[in-house]
Design brief:
The structure is a single chain. The strands form three sheets. Strands 1, 2, 3, 4, 5, 6, 7, 8, 9, 10, 11, 12 and 13 form a 13-stranded mixed sheet that branches. The radius of gyration is 34 Å and the shape is elongated. α20 (697-731) crosses α21. A hairpin with a 2-residue loop joins β4 (99-104) and β5 (107-112). The longest helix has 38 residues, at 410-447. The protein is 48% helix and 16% strand. The protein is an alpha+beta fold and 828 residues long. The model is unreliable at 404-411 (pLDDT under 50). It contains 24 helices and 25 strands.
Length: 828
């Protein structure tokens, strides 16, 4: 230990003698370590740290196997069958994602309001901060109307009043009793994001519709595996449960998938974070190579010092220990500066859009990150100091003491080592630049996607009535004779008329699922006069719209006509479909005049709808994503006794406003609603351009990050190549003087140095391109309309690095060409 402390003190004294080199090395390592620490902090907090629930490692998510990976709803009947038939699941709970309106102090506030079974809190081990959680009786059909508040909502909207428990509040037009307040760390379901921190929880009370219709898929299942039970065992048991579930003759077979809940939650960001960590690892390797080159150059300046120490009896082990100690000091200083940079990066990460990274507000540097940081310090020490240390240990003291400026001995060895390191830097930079080029090409392609709508001066916002029905308690009413009047006719039509006459407004429309709006209601349907095989019924997304929808968004009509104000409940029922539906289900035939059935008595849509028009395709869920078949129903023609009415019009709708210029839309809309519909809660004001930008934010963020990594790597390559060639010129100063004395021209000397730089760049490019070709498939999932082996990208990278190489080699070549032969020979 005493020897180590001596080496560290000596290392500090030596580094103080060359503060410029030390500062450059520390800065280089700080950039690499800081970026890696920031990304690993995100990975540790999001992917590796368990969720704050009891036995979260055994928490699983169950969904229909036929659906895509991720969260996917099933039915209450499936939940009941799994709960009755499973022996390997210790606890089973369910929830449905929902929204509602909280009326408090004369204002309406939109809140997320998931409905959960009482067993959820038992399974998660959640204890309320105030009051109690739901009882079993409150989870039965027709049970008491109660509610649980989040800590943030209780603190901000109820002023942290401890007497709130037991008081009545109005939620969704219904009076409910507050029975408890959940702690701030509880935000299940996690997939609802930060909004859940200021939401409410309602008991899930199964309706008659839920208990009779297996296709009523608005329910999510979570469970806890018994200790020692594997996923494969649970999967086989679920297969056995599914095999005993009765199904109708025209329905598809039932099967379930089971995955760790944490993996389902973090699935969308997991590949992105690991890809960024891989890119940053390359940057760290480049940084270590640069620092190693700096230490090699420094070793040459101290070769006589090491020779004297060796001649006086210092063994190779002591010399190696001294070099490693200097590298350790640089690594520790670099790590310290890197932590400071990582903390700045944490501030930037928390300013990302809320749904970019799950639980992003809980990302912090924990002790595990600091432990990994210690490992990084050791790794960077070894990577940056090992080659210089070995070079010092292998040096011959007699040769070093006799050495002059001849290009022999350790200088030749160090030149080869430095050259190899620079070639390695070029290879790693090639990988990063290829990734940057492919992502840039992807973002360019996304920018050229035909959106199908205008983004200029178009603003959207959501509106929820005070008595919003929610998505969880939908039911078909058979009392069609006493059907209530539609909110579309009573409220939305007058509101739209008021909005259209507001100053600066060009047009306005209503839609329940506007482009990139996030709402997703799908339904199977029948085409009157055609039959389909079992499990192969047509399926489409469904939205209710008003007149002026196409005009407001600037979407062209392909054929037929659009929805009009005259399409009311007492006129023939019509729909408009998009081009994708027309192509997919009518095989090139004209769909105008054909009729579709949206479920009949099962959904309350008892009358068939006639297709009146075909609208051009619009980007719906994501820019560059696959366009789904779409059915657009006139808002006034959605029967108020149907499931579609509650899901489309009685829960949340979106208003679309096109203005004649840049005017503040939100204040004007709030004023109109305050006068005409005071109970509505307005939220989510954004322009269509913002919606597009938010939708492509992930690709842009990935490009910006990798682009910055690649730029950093390119700067390091420039510095490394310049340093190596300058070093080689100084090694060969006498040789160059002899060459020029014997007749070599300055141009030939410059070409010699440029050739050496070209060899290093060329070797690195070859290796880097081979690595890029081998790993290109790993980023294929991030690309859009560009192949991993895109020739234009590879050519651009080769050209860019060739230019960088020539720029880096120019100054050393000029320096070599300016050497005066007589002066170089006199220096011997």
């Amino acid at each position: 230990m005493q020897s180590l402390l001596y080496d560290l003190r000596f290392a500090l004294r030596q580094l103080r003698k060359t503060p410029g080199m030390a500062a450059l090395a520390v800065l280089t390592l700080a950039l690499g370590v800081g970026a890696n620490t920031a990304i690993f902090t995100v990975i540790e907090s999001v992917l590796l740290r368990p969720l704050p629930y009891a036995n979260s490692g055994r928490l699983v998510y169950i969904a229909p196997r036929a659906d895509k990976p991720g969260f996917s709803a099933t039915s209450w009947l499936n939940f009941s069958d799994i709960r009755a038939g499973s022996r390997l699941l210790e606890n089973i709970a369910g929830y449905s994602e929902d929204v509602s309106v909280l009326e408090i102090e004369g204002a309406s506030l939109s809140v997320v309001a998931p409905r959960v079974t009482p067993s959820l809190f038992v399974m998660l081990g959640t204890r309320p901060m105030l009051g109690r959680v739901f009882s079993d009786a409150e989870g039965l059909a027709g049970g008491p109307d109660v509610v649980l508040l989040s800590e943030s909502l209780w603190r901000n909207s109820f002023h942290a009043n401890p007497n709130t428990v037991g008081h009545a509040v109005r939620i969704g037009g219904k009076v409910r009793t507050v029975i408890g307040v959940l702690p701030s760390g509880f935000r299940f379901p996690e997939e609802l994001g930060p909004d859940m921190a200021k939401g409410v929880w309602l008991p899930l009370q199964p309706t008659a519709e839920m208990q009779k219709d297996r296709g009523y898929n608005f329910f999510n299942i979570v469970a806890e595996l018994r200790p020692g039970v594997t996923l494969e065992q649970a999967r086989r048991e679920l297969d056995a449960v599914a095999a005993h579930i009765p199904r109708e003759a025209d329905s598809a077979p039932i099967a379930f998938r089971i995955d760790p809940y944490h993996d389902v939650l973090t699935g969308p960001v997991r590949p992105v974070l690991y890809a960024l960590l891989g890119a940053l690892a390359l940057v760290l390797l480049i940084a270590c190579a640069n620092v190693s080159n700096l230490l090699i150059a420094r070793c040459l300046g101290r070769r006589q010092e090491f020779a004297v120490r060796a001649a006086l009896g210092a063994g190779r082990g002591r010399l190696i220990a001294q070099m490693l100690a200097e590298g350790l000091v640089l690594s520790l200083l670099g790590c310290a500066a890197g932590v400071a940079l990582a903390k700045l990066a944490m501030i930037a990460i928390r300013k990302l859009p809320e749904d970019t990274i799950p639980r992003s507000d809980l990302i912090a540097i924990h002790w595990t990150v600091l432990f990994i940081l210690g490992g990084i310090a050791i790794l960077t020490t070894v990577l940056s100091s090992l080659l210089p240390a070995l070079m010092v240990a292998r040096a011959n003291p007699q040769q070093a003491l006799q050495a002059t400026s001849r290009g022999t001995g350790s200088r030749q060895v160090s030149g080869r080592l430095s050259g190899m390191l620079v070639a390695g830097e070029v290879a790693l930079s090639t990988l990063l630049l290829v990734g940057t080029g492919l992502l840039f090409h992807t973002l360019w392609n996304l920018g050229q996607v035909r959106l199908g709508f205008d983004v200029g001066h178009v603003t959207t916002f959501s509106a929820m009535p005070a008595d919003a029905a929610g998505f969880s308690n939908m039911a078909v009413s058979e009392d069609t004779a006493n059907a209530p009047a539609s909110v579309a006719t009573l409220t939305y039509v007058p509101l739209l008329e008021a909005i259209r006459h507001a100053p600066g407004v060009q047009s306005a429309a209503l839609a329940t699922a506007p482009p990139l709006g996030g709402m997703d209601l799908g339904s199977s349907f029948d085409i009157v006069g055609r039959t389909f095989a079992a499990g192969d019924k047509p399926h489409a997304r469904v939205t209710a719209i008003s007149a002026d929808y196409a005009r407001t968004l600037g979407t062209p009509l392909v054929r037929g006509r659009m929805i009009a104000d005259s399409d009311a409940a007492n006129t023939p029922f019509v729909v408009v479909v998009n081009e994708t539906l027309a192509r997919k289900y009518f095989a090139g035939a004209d769909p105008i005049g054909r009729q579709i059935d949206l479920g009949g008595k099962d959904t309350g849509m008892v009358k068939p709808f006639t297709i009146a028009g075909v609208l051009a395709d619009q980007v719906d869920r994501s820019v560059g994503g696959e366009v789904q078949p779409f059915i657009m129903i006139p808002a006034q023609q959605v029967p108020t006794t149907s499931l579609f009415y509650q899901a489309l019009l009685k829960t949340v709708v979106t208003f679309i406003v096109k203005t004649r210029g840049e005017i503040p839309v939100a204040p004007a809309m709030r004023a109109i609603f305050s006068k005409n519909a005071p109970g509505f809660a307005l939220d989510n004001f954004q322009t269509m351009q913002q919606a597009v930008d938010n939708n492509t934010f992930g690709q842009r963020l990935g490009l910006y990050l990798v682009e910055s990594f690649a730029a950093l790597a390119a700067v390091m390559v420039i510095a490394g190549l310049y340093g190596v060639l300058s070093q080689l010129v100084s090694y060969r100063r006498r040789e160059i003087g002899v060459r020029m004395a014997l007749g070599a021209t300055r141009m030939s000397v410059a070409r010699m140095v440029l050739r050496q730089g070209s060899v290093l760049i060329g070797a690195g490019l070859v290796v880097g391109l081979v690595l890029a070709l081998a790993t290109g498939r790993l980023i294929e999932g991030f690309l859009y309309q560009v192949k991993p082996l895109d020739a234009a990208t590879y050519f651009s990278v080769v050209l860019l690095l060739a230019v960088i190489g020539l720029m880096s080699a120019f100054l050393p070549a000029r320096k070599a060409a300016s050497i005066e032969p007589m002066q170089a020979l006199r220096e011997e």
